[in-house]
Write a structure and sequence with these properties.
Blueprint: H1 23-29, H2 36-51, E1 59-60, H3 61-65, H4 68-73, H5 83-96, E2 100-107, E3 114-121, H6 124-134, H7 138-144, H8 158-165, H9 171-183, H10 186-198, H11 204-217
Antiparallel strand pairs: 1-3, 2-3
Helix pairs in contact: 2-5, 8-10, 10-11
Length: about 250
């Protein structure tokens, strides 16, 4: 008997940000793709590029190789290769099919000169950017490419943080995590999870209490990983007062 697949908790009722996918993807490109990894990479690339702003958008190979969400999606049981090897093959397939346009670009100067692989979607604007690079006009291109067009390695999704460090996801917990993600900065959330794990307080209520304390009392460079000033650092078994009756040491 095959093992059960992990369940999807479902899309929230609240309005979600749409991702634009060209209709030709479904009518012309999709029937040609015969590799699951290439298909996953292609769909993920649409989402990544939608997350960027500005007229000219591109993906850096190094960022893709460091993207935990993408790599986990390419960790296929039927594939004996590592996720990184699967990604490299998917990139080769997508560029050979000309879904993505690959360019080797040198960045930096002198001893810090680096060679990077950049990927543009094969659109009119993507082809224009590639043409400018081939013409030696990278400096001109960088002037009009917004800084945010460089894909940054995203912090772990709050759902992933919860599942990896706390436990099983439920719809109620998912709603609380979504609210947490909208209320607090990503680095606060990640650090609060780390504090909960290091103090062996693996409960969402504890994490919420730490974040609430930071929100009300402040969180700056004078505050340690416990969320209080170094002069008032809590002992390792510290439990926020508002949850001392439900979170036992």
């Amino acid at each position: 008997m095959p093992k059960p697949l992990p369940g999807f908790i479902g899309f929230p009722d609240k309005k979600m940000k749409p991702v634009i996918v060209p209709d030709l993807f479904f009518t012309d490109l999709l029937p040609q793709i015969d590799d699951l990894a290439e298909l996953k990479l292609t769909v993920y690339a649409f989402w990544l590029l939608n997350e960027q702003s500005g007229d000219l958008r591109y993906l850096r190979g190094d960022d893709l190789r460091a993207d935990d969400t993408l790599l986990r999606s390419l960790n296929l049981e039927s594939d004996l290769r590592s996720p990184l090897m699967t990604l490299e093959d998917a990139l080769e397939r997508a560029t050979a099919r000309q879904t993505l346009l690959r360019m080797e670009v040198e960045t930096g100067q002198g001893e810090s000169l680096l060679s990077e692989d950049w990927y543009f979607l094969n659109t009119a604007k993507g082809r224009q950017a590639v043409a400018m690079i081939r013409q030696g006009r990278l400096a001109d291109l960088q002037k009009i490419l917004p800084e945010e067009a460089r894909l940054s390695v995203e912090r772990p999704n709050v759902f992933i943080l919860y599942e990896q460090n706390i436990g099983m996801m439920t719809e109620i917990i998912a709603e609380q995590l979504r609210d947490m993600e909208k209320t607090y900065p990503p680095d606060w959330i990640e650090e609060a999870f780390e504090i909960a794990v290091s103090n062996n307080k693996r409960a969402l209520r504890y994490i919420q209490a730490v974040l609430k304390r930071w929100e009300t009392e402040g969180k700056d460079e004078g505050y340690g990983r416990s969320g209080r000033s170094s002069a008032q650092a809590e002992p390792k078994n510290y439990t926020p007062d508002e949850f001392s009756d439900v979170i036992r040491s």
